[in-house]
Amino acid sequence: MSQRGKSNPVTMEDVARAAGVSRMTVSRAMRADGSVSQNTRDRILKIVSKMNYVPDQMAGSLSTKRSGFVATLVPSLNNVHYAKMVQALTETIETTGLQILLGHTDYSMAREEQLVESTLKRRPEAIALPFDGHTDRTINLLKQAQIPVIELWDTPAKPIGYTVGFSNEHASFLMTEKLIELGYKNIAFVCETNDEWTRGAARRTGFKNAMEAAGLSAHRMIRFGTPPMSIKDGHHIGQNLDQYYDDIDCVFCVSDSPAFGVLTALNEKGVKVPSDVGVAGFGNFEVSRYAMPSITTVKVDPAEVGRVAAELVIRLLDDKQDQSKEPKKYQIDISLSIRDSTRLVK
Amino acid sequence: MSQRGKSNPVTMEDVARAAGVSRMTVSRAMRADGSVSQNTRDRILKIVSKMNYVPDQMAGSLSTKRSGFVATLVPSLNNVHYAKMVQALTETIETTGLQILLGHTDYSMAREEQLVESTLKRRPEAIALPFDGHTDRTINLLKQAQIPVIELWDTPAKPIGYTVGFSNEHASFLMTEKLIELGYKNIAFVCETNDEWTRGAARRTGFKNAMEAAGLSAHRMIRFGTPPMSIKDGHHIGQNLDQYYDDIDCVFCVSDSPAFGVLTALNEKGVKVPSDVGVAGFGNFEVSRYAMPSITTVKVDPAEVGRVAAELVIRLLDDKQDQSKEPKKYQIDISLSIRDSTRLVK
DNA sequence: TTGTAGGCGTTATCAC
DNA sequence: GTGATAACGCCTACAA
What we know:
Number of domains of chain A: 3
Number of helices of chain A: 14
CATH class of the largest domain in chain A: Alpha Beta
Distance between the termini of chain A: 79 Å
Strand order of the largest sheet of chain A: 2-1-3-4-5-11
Largest interface: A-B, 66 and 68 residues
Shape of chain A: elongated
Oligomer: homodimer
CATH architecture of the largest domain in chain A: 3-Layer(aba) Sandwich
Mean pLDDT of chain A: 92
Strand content of chain A: 15-25%
Largest sheet of chain A: 6 strands, parallel
């Protein structure tokens, strides 16, 4: 044993010896097994605390075959939405003593595959991950793992297991419909390049469908930057808006960050929002409400996704519950927040 | 074994049997041990992939005494700073095959203690956590754990082990000094209530010291909301600014979020920024650069903290390196971004 | 280059 | 109530 593995040298054996009992009694005492006399239990716990003994959960898990982990993958933490979702998910999950094993895919399917594999090595009891398309191998690994798989955010056509999310396409459709109702006709959609595997694509499709349903052209597509779009990206687009199309009367952005950037650039250029050009975003970031003018946006509640997913996991992992009757699909509500960056119905 | 532990039923034994070799050969083949003939190795790897075998790292770790985990605690993911830091830390750490075990303390020492304990059960090889004060028990557990402990963000007076961060107090001192130089005298400091255990307190102290050093009064202290302060909190304060003190000529906020809120509220009320009232923040959030006017702020690079901490961990865990000559303290640079929300030197 | 024996720290199971 | 024994799935150490 010449490795650096020092771990905590205090082992259950040490505690047992100090207490003059067997390891099993210590094990039972720590788990409030009930079948330990109050006396010995108290004595053991006192020693445990004195020795600062911290049980090795890896060893325990190996024995019980329960890792106590729930894996969660997100594209990035650098996005308020995912950060909030993870926060909510974690908070809910942890009430049951399970721990979250987190990874971020950086919006890449290849990295996701790699991450799924390294995560699976920890034998999580369930895994929740965003649906943005998976490689075949990822899907195989997931199926093979024999644990509940929960796909988040969007609703895939062929779910692997469970699904918690909303339809980005539908949400985007609704917003576009609304913008048209507000009198805008030459609406441009702002999104990332290479969004094929992100929710961006779904939002783009929703926009397109709504425009075409209204007999309008959806050709004003402004693609810039890589996911996730930043305020800066939006600012750049806003500055050069007429270079893209010179007849835009409204800009619908794939998220609130670029929407805020566009708005700022338009303000700087003296373009009147919402009378000259309307601006709409997606996500209801806090900044949108306090922008001037406040930004019309699609309201989603990422925390709700996290919470619902967490509760589902908890139910699925509860032996006492009947898993078979759990619905496979959970729909999270969205709504539109029409604010000052778009004009009122004429 | 009548437990629900389903885990992945495929075990190394199964692969070995399928390949007609012993478990050890499989083990070696998978780790590119070198001492396996190319032939058998290829054959085994093919079978591994066909069976979708994923090794159980827990079992491996129990044996090697290397968990492969690096624990990271943050107050909240709901804060761009920490989210960015975690992202950077994770990216760097993962290049070495180590995995991040993440927890969030919700700005509570009690929760931190609990979290440290549950985290330590996983036998991380190192732990990085924010310094915002720890309970005695937390400190004991950390010392007992026999692993590198890295305190982040601020520089504690009595570090447990290593330290990566900047002095919030000093940064705040510098900004206050600058604001005074710009001609502001009646500067108010905006921070949370109950910030005693957050970096907020250090920033407050820096403000106070700078004011007093310049012979000015630091009594204009506006405390509102709980950490972390939001745009909304700032907006509320901005709306009622003269209710707090009626002679404020500059508002220095504990972070950019409330600064943006204050700015918006002042804009709404027709108060001129920066001529009537200056506004400054802390953190250089993206929104500050694109606010109108752009917000003067203290520039810190959270990603840099994550990166430096990660690299330190990597060096410390590298057997081949001599740990003893690692410095204990790593200072991250900060700088001031003087923008349009504060007036120019008279 | 491959295999055998034994152990990592914990818990399930069955005796006492 | 408590203890002895045998796993859990992998790896180290040593042998062949």
